[in-house]
Design goal:
The protein is of the alpha/beta class. It has two domains: 47-290, 3-Layer(aba) Sandwich (Rossmann fold), CATH 3.40.50; 304-483, DNA-packaging terminase, C-terminal nuclease domain (Nucleotidyltransferase, domain 5), CATH 3.30.420. The chain has helices at residues 4-8, 13-30, 32-40, 48-64, 83-98, 111-132, 182-185, 188-202, 224-233, 271-281, 283-290, 361-375, 398-410, 425-430, 433-437, 447-450, 452-460, 469-483, and strands at residues 72-76, 103-108, 137-142, 146-149, 155-160, 170-176, 206-216, 241-244, 309-310, 321-327, 336-343, 349-357, 377-383, 416-419, 441-444. The strands form two sheets. The chain has an eight-stranded mixed sheet, covered by helices on one side. The chain has a seven-stranded mixed sheet with strand order 9-15-12-11-10-13-14, with helices on both faces. β3 (137-142) and β4 form a beta hairpin. The radius of gyration is 29 Å and the shape is elongated.
């Protein structure tokens, strides 16, 4: 049998182009990914995560036609990842073109945004409906809040989350980012209203063989996705298929098959760009918005039931790499927090010791040098915000000058760096929660006799009325571990007695 190329060979160029165009249209009428490429006119960028979304949305369509497939889907991806473009702007047009008697409900956090998505979907169907499926938008009902399909019962209804959709039915309900910002996401009142609207309003609009698609960038642990998944895991709710794509691949199975550290969309967001974005947004929002690992809505980092403990008798510090940090005292009753964390041979972080005391500058420096001899730090970090030294001021603070002097006097080199923190302290401390919850950050099993005050502060954090010097020092230390690179050169001075790290 001759190949397609052989069959096309006798044809004139214009005829070939016509057949190629027709082939693309046939494929676009059947498959969402091909439709996006046709609609994009060569401008639409393929990406692995978008291919997965398209495949799942085709399953959504099949389920509404009684052909099996997925009828409950959740997509959690970083901002600007194209999830709304595919799911809320183009999919409704493709779906209604193929299913003109079906109805779609589209909701976002604001009615105006829902109308914008609806307008794009309507104009997309106007452009392609007659050619691909022989369908067109009704001229009798074509407002952005509700438009129909000419000669059919189907159409789309757009509304803000919490808005009126009574009297409307849905074969497919699409909920795209039901919360607007961090303030709403952290509000239990707002989250409860969204949950009540979902259960009492939207859910009652679903037709038989209907499907629901929830598209979110995660903000909080107790958001709509968090509650749906919690219900599913407790076997009290429906089964959802969840596609959760972190911006940067981490350990464990990755939905995109990436290696650790790989970007979810290298062509658009290179790893270097994501590294800069991580620093810019701060740890709290990076974990939630970009890694899809939101924190406890109540802000609590420490759940005693999740504490991972290690018997210190099973740890040989000489086989570990030590990191330290100091949150200096600001005077008065303020604590100075000096902490040591060991990186174990298996990669976990073990909080080894923590000194919380009302120390002056001289005492803090003495302790740093003592701990250096004891632990042989790879890196010791000192927060400079409270040293009475402006970030923009040239030269070293008095604390740093004194530390350098004491190093020379005692012949001990401390591989230290100063850190100026711009992110809010509460956000930085909250960034510890994922590491704590997944067992990366561990504690000694004998902690009640070693650092009970640290655990007490972690339990209370974040609390503006309570001491938080321990959690603050711990975050500074963990950030140093995460960003540590082996130094090219070592700090030296004449006459120094080198205390090298453990081999």
């Amino acid at each position: 049998m001759p190949s397609l190329e052989q069959l096309l060979q006798p044809l004139k160029p214009r005829q070939k182009r016509g057949l190629e165009r027709k082939a693309k249209e046939v494929l676009a009428s059947r498959h969402l990914l091909d439709f996006l490429e046709l609609d994009g006119g060569g401008r639409w960028q393929r990406a692995k995560h978008l291919e997965l979304i398209c495949a799942k949305l085709e399953e959504i369509e099949a389920a509404t036609r009684g052909e099996g497939g997925c009828d409950r889907a959740i997509f959690c991806l970083p901002p600007r990842g194209g999830k709304s473009e595919v799911s809320s702007k183009k999919f409704p047009a493709w779906y209604l073109g193929r299913n003109p008697d079906s109805e779609v409900i589209l909701s976002t956090y604001a009615a105006d945004l829902s109308y914008d998505f609806s307008r794009i979907a309507r104009e997309t169907l106007r452009e392609w409906g007659p050619t691909l499926w022989g369908t067109s938008v009704s001229t009798d009902s074509s407002s952005v809040s509700k438009w129909g399909i000419k000669g059919h019962r189907g159409g789309l209804t757009a509304a803000g989350v919490g808005g009126p959709i009574t009297g409307r039915g849905a074969s497919v309900a699409i909920i795209d980012d039901p919360v607007k910002n961090a303030e709403e996401a952290s509000s239990k009142v707002v989250q409860d209203k969204i949950w009540d609207w979902y259960r009492s309003t939207l859910y009652t609009r679903l037709a038989p063989n209907s499907a629901v698609v929830v598209i979110m960038t995660r903000w909080a642990e107790d958001d709509l996705v968090g509650r749906l998944v919690a219900e599913m895991e407790s076997e009290d709710g429906e089964d959802w298929e969840v596609l959760s794509v972190p911006a940067i691949a981490e350990g464990g199975p990755d939905p995109l098959g990436r290696k650790v550290g790989g970007s979810y969309w290298p062509a658009r967001f290179p790893e270097e760009w994501l590294d800069r974005r991580r620093i810019a947004v701060g740890p709290f929002y990076w974990e939630a918005l970009y890694q899809q690992r939101p924190l406890d809505a109540a802000g609590k980092i420490f759940n005693p039931d999740l504490m991972h403990k290690i018997n210190p008798s099973e740890v040989d510090p000489k086989t570990c790499k030590a990191f330290g940090a100091l949150d200096p005292s600001e005077g008065g009753a303020d604590y100075a927090g000096l902490i040591t964390v060991l990186v174990l041979p298996d990669g976990r972080w073990l909080v080894w010791d923590c000194d919380l005391s009302v120390d002056n500058q001289d005492k803090s420096i003495s302790k740093i040098i003592e701990k250096q001899v004891q632990h042989r730090y790879q890196l010791f970090r000192i927060e400079s915000n409270s040293l009475g030294h402006a970030k923009s001021a040239p030269g070293d603070s008095l604390f740093v000058l004194d530390l350098k002097r004491r190093q020379k006097e005692e012949g001990v080199i401390v591989p230290f760096e100063t850190v100026w923190n711009t992110a809010p302290k509460v956000d930085r401390i909250r960034s510890l929660q994922p590491h704590y919850a997944n067992g990366q950050l561990c504690f000694r099993s004998d902690w009640p006799s070693v650092y009970p005050e640290l655990i007490a502060q972690l339990k209370a954090a974040p609390n503006p009325k309570a001491h938080d010097d321990g959690p603050d020092s711990l975050e500074i230390c963990v950030a140093g571990i995460l960003n540590y690179r082996e130094p090219v050169t070592k700090l030296t001075f004449v006459g120094a007695k080198r205390i090298p790290p453990w081999k």
